[in-house]
C-alpha cells in the first residue's frame, strides 16, 4: 500500500489533474441561469419568475417558508409562491432561490457523502451567522452574505469528489480541511468562472478569510461574511487572528454595532434564539 500524500503534494496533483480536465466540476442547475436572465433588471416580471420557480417544487416550498421566516415575516402568512416573491422582492428572492439550488449540490453526490454533509453543516452555520449579522446593519441586505458564504465554500465540492477518486488521497476529514484551506478559495473562483459569474462575484469569493482586507465604504457583504467566518473559527482548534486585527471588525465597531457577547451579541440568549430561527432559511 502506498502512503497517503501530504497536502503540498495533493495540491500539485489536483492542479495537474485540473489542467488535464480530469477534475469533475459540479453543474449549476439550469434554473439558476434562467433566474439570472429573468431577474437581471429591476423591472422584472414576477409572474415569469414564479412560472420558472414552479419547475422546482423544493425551491418553491423553501421560498414560501422563507417568506414566513423571522427575517421576512409580515402580519399576513404567505401561502403561495406568488405571494412569497412579492414579499421577498427581487434581490432576496433571487439570492434565496440560488442558495437552495446550491444546497442541492452539497447533497447531490453519493461520493464522499459524509464529508459533504460535514462541509455543508459548517457552511450552513457560517451562512446563517452572516445573515444574522447583516440583519443588524443598515447597509447590508441579509440575503447577500448568505449567498456569498455558500459560494465561498463551494471549492470543497470538486475537492471532495477528486479525493474520493484519487488512489493516494487520505480519507480523513482533516485532510479535506487542510486541502480546502490551501486551495479551496481558488477552486471556488475557477468554478464560478466556469459558470460565467461576473468578476465582482469572483473577486468577492477570493476574500474568504482575508482577515486584513479593508473594503471601501460602509460595511458590505464581504465584511459580514468575513466576520461570520471568524466567529465560526473562534472556538475551533485553529482560530483566526485576534479580533482586533480583523479589518472588517474595525468597520463593525465604527458603525457602533453590538459586540459584547460575541460579534453582534450572537452568543447572547436573544442572539442564539434568532440564529436558530434564521437557520430555517436553509433547512
Automatic annotation (TrEMBL):
**SUPFAM superfamilies the UniProt entry points to:** HD-domain/PDEase-like (SSF109604)
Q: Which InterPro entries match?
A: HDOD, RNase_Y/CdgJ
Per its UniProt entry, which superkingdom is the organism in?
A: Bacteria
Q: Which residues form the HDOD domain?
A: 25-211
Name used for this protein in its record: HDOD domain-containing protein
| Organism (species) | Litorivicinus lipolyticus
Amino acid at each position: 500500500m502506498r502512503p497517503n500524500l501530504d497536502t503540498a503534494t495533493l495540491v500539485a496533483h489536483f492542479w495537474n489533474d485540473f489542467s488535464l480536465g480530469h477534475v469533475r466540476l459540479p453543474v449549476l442547475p439550469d434554473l439558476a441561469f434562467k433566474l439570472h436572465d429573468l431577474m437581471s433588471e429591476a423591472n422584472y416580471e414576477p409572474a415569469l419568475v414564479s412560472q420558472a420557480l414552479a419547475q422546482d417544487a423544493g425551491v418553491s416550498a423553501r421560498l414560501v417558508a422563507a417568506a414566513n421566516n423571522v427575517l421576512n415575516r409580515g402580519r399576513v402568512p404567505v401561502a403561495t409562491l406568488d405571494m412569497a416573491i412579492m414579499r421577498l422582492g427581487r434581490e432576496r428572492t433571487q439570492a434565496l432561490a440560488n442558495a437552495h439550488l446550491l444546497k442541492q449540490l452539497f447533497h447531490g453526490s453519493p461520493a464522499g457523502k459524509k464529508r459533504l454533509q460535514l462541509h455543508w453543516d459548517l457552511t450552513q452555520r457560517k451562512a446563517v451567522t452572516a445573515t444574522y449579522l447583516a440583519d443588524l446593519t443598515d447597509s447590508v441586505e441579509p440575503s447577500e452574505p448568505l449567498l456569498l458564504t455558500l459560494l465561498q465554500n463551494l471549492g470543497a465540492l470538486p475537492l471532495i469528489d477528486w479525493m474520493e477518486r484519487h488512489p493516494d488521497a487520505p480519507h480523513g476529514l482533516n485532510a479535506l480541511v487542510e486541502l480546502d484551506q490551501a486551495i479551496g478559495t481558488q477552486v471556488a473562483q475557477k468554478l464560478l468562472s466556469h459558470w460565467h459569474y461576473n468578476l465582482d462575484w469572483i473577486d468577492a469569493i477570493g476574500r474568504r478569510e482575508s482577515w486584513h482586507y479593508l473594503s471601501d465604504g460602509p460595511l458590505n457583504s464581504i465584511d459580514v461574511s468575513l466576520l461570520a467566518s471568524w466567529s465560526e473559527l473562534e472556538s475551533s482548534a485553529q482560530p483566526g487572528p485576534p479580533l482586533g486585527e480583523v479589518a472588517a471588525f474595525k468597520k463593525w465597531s465604527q458603525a457602533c454595532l453590538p459586540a459584547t457577547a460575541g460579534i453582534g451579541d450572537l452568543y447572547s440568549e436573544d442572539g442564539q434564539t434568532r440564529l436558530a430561527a434564521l437557520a430555517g432559511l436553509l433547512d
